[in-house]
Design goal:
It contains 13 helices and 9 strands. It is globular. The termini are far apart. The longest helix has 24 residues. Helix 10 runs antiparallel to helix 11. Strands 1, 2, 3, 4, 5, 6, 7, 8 and 9 form a 9-stranded mixed β-sheet that branches. It has about 350 residues and is of the alpha/beta class. The chain has 2 domains: about 230 residues, Alpha-Beta Complex (Spore Coat Polysaccharide Biosynthesis Protein SpsA, Chain A), CATH 3.90.550; about 80 residues, no CATH class.
């Protein structure tokens, strides 16, 4: 007998099969020889709002881990696009849906609800590398004195045929490089895992920020010399797409998150008692931001804004800013040759 399934029925069947596969993997016992004597519970926190098309991939990247001692907490801001219906196909999730004050308010709620000793943060449009949570747990068990662990990360774009194209690769972060990576470099925040006690010691995410509270948290870690470990392996994969919070693939110098980044850099540059090394990091970061703002304003044919950004850059680093600017112009010279676009 031939059974023909409607498209919607087939979708729900696939979702149920994905959940069953996910549940089996979460319940599977570890292989002998790799069993942790004191299983460490890992809590994964995912902030969520209207991600019906992508959230399944994020959830299933947790399901594909070979580590059963975990919980996955979804903090939803009141999605209306079918996201909650998708999440109902995964009964193992701890889903909380209510209005919030932004992504960092959601993360703070997740940290408070987390029962695990270690907490990681997964975005709805990204994914973990398969099999990395066992590595994370083993590193924390092997190094009880570390408060956090970080690995590498990548950025990818997904084509219409489903194939992924690597856009960028970021190495892991060493202890001596944290301040540099949290400012002028790539902090790859989602490739970090933290012992929950860190949030008791340093505080939670500052909800005054809408975009850079994760970077500000890492700066607190750097100035407090929080001990962390590093693994030479990509743990996290960021997706670049038009709906991304900060990785849209379009010129971003005048996006809100860039202005907020500049305000954070300025806050530290105005601070008395900053070490020479730290001040240099913040100067370079501030110069990079103002340069990106100039290049974006150029593409939008906005010369007055270009002048304003230049003056802001020169204010904090009159000697170093021109060098940073020229390096970036050479690196991104295609922008200057591209046809200016009006806003």
């Amino acid at each position: 007998m031939l059974i023909v399934l409607e498209k919607q029925e087939l979708y729900h069947l696939n979702q149920k099969m994905a959940w069953l596969e996910c549940l089996l993997k979460l319940c599977r016992l570890p292989e002998q020889g790799n069993i942790l004597f004191h299983p460490l519970l890992i809590s994964i926190v995912t902030p969520c709002f209207n991600r019906a098309e992508l959230v399944s991939e994020a959830v299933e990247s947790v399901c594909r881990q070979d580590y059963p001692h975990l919980e996955h907490i979804i903090i939803d801001a009141g999605s209306t696009d079918g996201t909650l219906e998708v999440l109902r196909n995964y009964p193992h999730l701890r889903v909380y849906s209510e209005p919030d004050a932004g992504i960092y308010d959601a993360l703070n709620k997740g940290v408070k609800l987390a029962r695990g000793e270690v907490v990681g943060f997964l975005n709805t449009d990204d994914c973990y590398e398969p099999g990395i949570l066992r590595l994370v747990a083993e590193e924390f068990e092997r190094k009880p004195n570390i408060d956090a662990l970080v690995g590498g990360a990548t950025i990818f774009q997904q084509a219409s045929d489903g194939k992924r194209r690597l856009v960028a690769r970021f190495p892991s972060i060493q202890q001596q490089d944290l301040l540099m990576r949290a400012t002028e470099g790539a902090p790859i925040f989602n490739a970090w895992f933290f012992r929950k006690r860190v949030f008791d010691e340093l505080g939670v995410f500052d909800t005054c920020y809408l975009y850079v509270a994760d970077r500000e948290f890492l700066l607190r870690m750097a100035f407090q010399a929080t001990s962390f470990g590093s693994v030479d392996k990509a743990l996290y994969h960021y997706r670049m797409h038009p709906g991304s919070y900060t990785l849209s693939g379009e010129p971003s110098g005048e996006d809100a998150w860039m202005f907020e980044s500049r305000a954070l850099a300025t806050r530290y540059l105005d601070r008395a008692g900053l070490s020479r090394k730290a001040r240099k990091c913040f100067k370079v970061w501030h110069s990079q931001i103002t340069t990106e703002q100039i290049l974006t304003a150029w593409g939008r044919k906005a010369p007055l804004r270009m002048i304003r950004y230049m003056l802001a850059g020169l204010r904090y680093d009159p000697l170093g800013w021109p060098n940073v600017f020229m390096k970036k112009v050479i690196e991104r010279r295609w922008i200057l040759l591209d046809k200016p676009r009006s806003r």
